[in-house]
Structure formats: C-alpha cells, structure tokens
Backbone:
C-alpha cells in the first residue's frame, strides 16, 4: 500500500486500523523495531477478541456463565482475526472470554504475524539483526509513522480534551494500552498522574454505549486475568516443588 493510500485512510480517522495493529504499533520502538510492554501477546489477543465482538462474529452469552458463542464463522478478510475465529469455531467446548485471551495469546508467532501484516501494509519494515554475533533477532522499524501518530493524537485528545462524542475504538485502545502498560508511550508521567481518573473512566467504559461498554469491561477482565495467571502458575509450581522436596527429605 502506498503512502498516499495511508494519507487517504487516516483522513477518515483510525477506524481502518485494527485494534491489535494499533496496540502493536504502540509496543514497537519506532527506530529499533523492538517490542516493549507487559504481556503483549495477551493484550493483542484481547484486542483481536474485541474486534470480533464489535464485528458481531462472536458474543458473550450472559445467560450461560458469560461463555463466548460463535455467531458468524465466515472469513473477516483478515488473516490474524480469521485464525482466532477458526480456533473458536473448532473448539469442542465453549469458554469464557478470559480463557480465550489465554488460548489466542498462545497462537504460534502471534506478535510476529501481526508485525508481518503491518509490514505488508507498508507501516513497518521486516529486518533481522545479529545479537552477540550468534543469534538472529527479528526487528520491525517503522517506515510510515502517520498511522501511529494519528492513533496517539486520537488517544491524547480523548483523555486530555474530553470530547463530548467518544469514539468506542479509541476508548478501547486506551483500555488495552492501559492493560499492556503502554500508556507511557502516549502520555507523560505528569499527564498520567493528572488524568488518572479520566483514564480509569475510559478503561471501564463509563462514557460509552451499552455494547461498547460490555466489550471494554470484558476485555479489561480478560487481560487482567491473563496478566495475573503466569505469576499465579509460577507461584503454584514453586510451592508444589517445595512441598515435593520437603516430602522426599
């Protein structure tokens, strides 16, 4: 896609930038092409699920223990989302949204697949560099900064200027970036401190319509559980190992 095409795309806002793509752009260092942020895979997975919810390809059944139901399994035209949708379609048992964050977060090379998609659109480049002259590391330096600049502008406007009309997709990006600890890529420490209450309101979906609020709330819970689970698993494993060692002595 040419730079001109991106100009046209962002003249109409960020609605054509997928949530998970925007999250990945925030996580990537523009010059080095390396990734930052906590548990990016889980946050990307949550963003993919949010997209599928907004597209009404899946829904959360509140009458069935908040389990995710497949609504439409036809192709979205997006390889990353289609792979996630197929996993949901192929599942033998329905699961809650937080469980799907875990499962989709474990899709092989998920972050790199998203990066490759951004590269195909001409936003970032695919490169490899040597680490300690022994290992090869994939890096994704930014070549077209306009999409990320527009995204940052919209996020800052939502938080700092408090517009009367709230774009659900921008609100979701703020919520997802908060969960992935990426808001520091968009706001200064002073801004985060000064506007903490505003950010919390957006993250909880308090200013959005009912459907968008449900999506924000579900994604927030799913990411929270996903982020906590590795630490819980590690602690449980450590305790079990310690108990086993004690019993064997």
Residues:
């Amino acid at each position: 896609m040419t730079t001109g095409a991106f100009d046209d795309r962002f003249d109409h806002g960020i609605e054509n930038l997928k949530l998970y793509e925007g999250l990945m752009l925030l996580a990537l260092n523009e010059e080095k092409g390396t990734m930052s942020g906590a548990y990016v895979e889980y946050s990307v997975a949550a963003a993919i699920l949010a997209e599928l919810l907004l597209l009404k390809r899946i829904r959360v059944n509140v009458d069935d223990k908040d389990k995710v139901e497949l609504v439409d399994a036809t192709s979205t035209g997006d390889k990353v989302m289609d792979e996630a949708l197929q996993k949901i379609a192929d599942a033998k048992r329905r699961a809650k949204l937080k469980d799907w964050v875990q499962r989709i977060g474990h899709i092989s090379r998920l972050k790199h697949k998203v990066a490759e998609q951004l590269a195909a659109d001409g936003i970032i480049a695919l490169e490899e560099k040597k680490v300690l002259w022994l290992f090869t590391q994939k890096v994704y330096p930014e070549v077209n900064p306009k999409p990320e600049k527009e995204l940052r502008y919209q996020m800052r406007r939502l938080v700092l200027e408090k517009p009367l009309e709230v774009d659900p997709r921008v609100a979701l990006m703020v919520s997802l970036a908060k969960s992935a600890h990426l808001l520091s890529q968009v706001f200064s420490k002073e801004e985060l401190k000064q506007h903490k209450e505003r950010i919390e309101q957006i993250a909880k979906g308090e200013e959005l319509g009912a459907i968008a609020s449900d999506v924000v709330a579900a994604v927030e819970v799913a990411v929270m559980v996903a982020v906590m689970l590795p630490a819980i698993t590690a602690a449980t494993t450590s305790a079990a190992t310690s108990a086993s060692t004690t019993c064997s002595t």
User: Anything to note?
Assistant: Residues 39 and 230 are 10 Å apart (CA to CA).
